[in-house]
Design goal:
The structure is a homodimer. Chain A is of the alpha+beta class. The first copy, chain A, is built from eleven helices and twelve strands. Chains A, B: Catalyzes the ATP-dependent phosphorylation of thiamine-monophosphate (TMP) to form thiamine-pyrophosphate (TPP), the active form of vitamin B1.
Chain lengths: ~350, ~350
């Protein structure tokens, strides 16, 4: 079975070995010259070189229906859907390593596909993974291998490995102290606003053709859609934070409120947001709210509870100047562990197990 | 949200944090005292201690419908289904490490569950994972963490990490040489025979009550069902093989024919099976064929193409006595890479991407 540059076969017609051959043509050139991969795909397991005394490791799954809908790419070139899914699946794991101040060294990818998916889809997906590994902060990361399987729904689980970078120091959740400044690097609420744009564009509109309005978006709205489809976490922010003496940190995957509550509980501190800072974050998103015909108040919801921003939250001692890329969100105080509730309403954040 | 020893809540009712609390009660006692886990579940990523200069890593997914059916456990105590799925998901990954002569050090688990699954199911699943890590050869393996998600189908992806054990030597696929002896440790065809028993028991039988006949099985039939539901790979065989100068090896996950073809291609050798050895392997399974009302010839199919045996295949130089636990299957010869086809018919083996 040979596979052409544009392979019209389905993965079921091609079979596992031919699909592996196609994806190797994407990942082998990426892996070449990167020193971390001692033995690449093709044996029972991959073998990585350990450069330090610790390995930082995380895993995350992305599923069609649960995490994205293919209709979000209706009207886009065919390769964008698999490329964006590959980028997002990799990025959410790279973000977890960033949140520990670790440098990514390797990804392992377990891909489950319905039998009618094309071999081209797999190639484009891996191109999206490689794109995520080309971001500053992830450039030493190899794609070490994985597993291919068949199932009724597309899903992918990526495991990411990294090594502590800055003298072995880790950015943990439990070190924040009263008096610290709470700061963030990366966008807030963009992915939630992008989700709202994508979902709204799928609703039938009686008076207009069923065009996919987000294709014509510009400015902040286009950035929000991109943040949802192919996030770009600030992958050097974790190491930057540790170098700047950050006392604690984590990435924002389930929404600012929910994730801040976790950091507050882990550190046994109280987090109080600056109202002006939250207002400034929300204000940026107001053009999107207007485009959707929604009140400006929805922007604060996006900022406080929107998931998948993959921004980096960190606490810094008060005497330390915030490093480049970080902006102040609030302060760390003593008191019952949690997040100050003034002006926050009933915001809760994303729970991966709950049906909404 | 507190979780009682027997939690009647669904995962959707309980929410992610409560489910994590329950699974921590299973894995924390297992992890305690094992030196490999520097930072366990609860932060953005886990941190493992590296004891050697290399990490061996593999990943595999198990999905309901594709890899098992819950009806296989109809009539069994409720905990057996999740426990067996946990054991099997872990075992298939531990087997890949065994196949590299690596000692397992850590598992990462990404579990996707339909919202109506119970919190108890998650607890029992993790008990099954811990059971697999209690097998000889895996006893230093920690459960480092993972990810919980919701989806329409139950699936689990486990990533397993290990370290080369015997002076850093790896058991690769590409070292077999003409003159070597082909040998195996572990069972052949048992998982396929067990699958046939489980599938047959689900067919409605007009003249009898719809009892689950496998509950009453004994002897070889019971062993075959167990091999399918909760495999026990020979987890010390990889290190044993390397100590005995094995030139190549791999585990049998897609069937003897298919996996031998891969080893033959990787080593550029020809594999010829001993007919008498295959016949002896098949003969063991004849009581199962008779129980199913099938001709004895099906036993050879099970041996040659049955997947999921997780036995260890290895090639040894002719002058070396086969180590304990290994039995001879054939020989390695020069010639066009492949497997000798006499008496083999059209046997092919399992392809994870093809619809059968």
């Amino acid at each position: 079975m040979t596979s052409m540059p544009h392979d019209p076969l389905t993965v079921s017609q091609a079979g596992e070995d031919a699909v592996v051959e196609v994806l190797r043509r994407v990942i082998d050139p990426h892996n070449a010259g990167r020193p971390g991969l001692f033995l690449g795909p093709g044996d029972d397991a991959a073998v990585l070189t350990c450069f330090s005394a610790q390995t930082v490791i995380t895993t995350d799954t992305l599923s069609e229906g649960q995490d994205f809908r293919r209709q979000w790419w209706a009207g886009s070139p065919a390769k964008e859907w698999p490329q964006d899914v590959g980028t997002k699946a990799a990025a959410q794991n790279l973000s977890d390593l960033n949140a520990m101040a670790a440098t990514p060294t390797a990804l392992l990818i377990s891909l489950t596909l319905p039998p009618e998916f094309s071999v081209d889809w797999v190639r484009d997906f891996y191109q999206g993974v490689v794109r995520a590994c080309s971001q500053t902060g992830a450039q030493q990361c190899v794609v070490a291998g994985g597993d291919l399987g068949s199932g009724p729904e597309m899903s992918v689980t990526i495991t990411a490995l990294g090594e502590p970078r800055e003298k072995g120091r880790l950015l943990k959740r439990d070190g924040a102290r009263a008096g610290d400044v709470l700061a963030v690097s990366g966008v807030l609420g963009y992915a939630a606003a992008g989700l709202a744009l994508l979902e709204q564009s799928m609703k039938p509109v009686s008076s207009e053709p069923a065009a996919h309005a987000w294709e014509a978006l510009t400015g902040i709205a286009a950035q929000c859609v991109a943040a949802q489809k192919r996030p770009q976490p600030p992958l050097t922010a974790g190491v930057t934070a540790v170098r700047a003496q950050a006392s604690a940190g984590m990435d924002l995957s389930d929404g600012l409120m929910r994730d801040c509550s976790r950091l507050a509980r882990a550190s046994d501190v109280r987090i109080t947001f600056d109202d002006a800072a939250l207002a400034a974050e929300a204000r940026v998103l107001e053009p999107v709210a207007r485009q959707l015909g929604l009140s400006d108040s929805v922007c604060r919801d996006w900022v406080l509870t929107g998931g998948e921003d993959f921004a980096l939250l960190a606490a810094f001692p008060p005497e330390v100047p915030l490093p480049e890329g970080f902006r102040r969100l609030g302060s760390i105080e003593s008191g019952p562990a949690g997040v100050s509730a003034e002006t926050l309403g009933t915001h809760r954040g994303w729970d991966s197990m709950r049906s909404e």
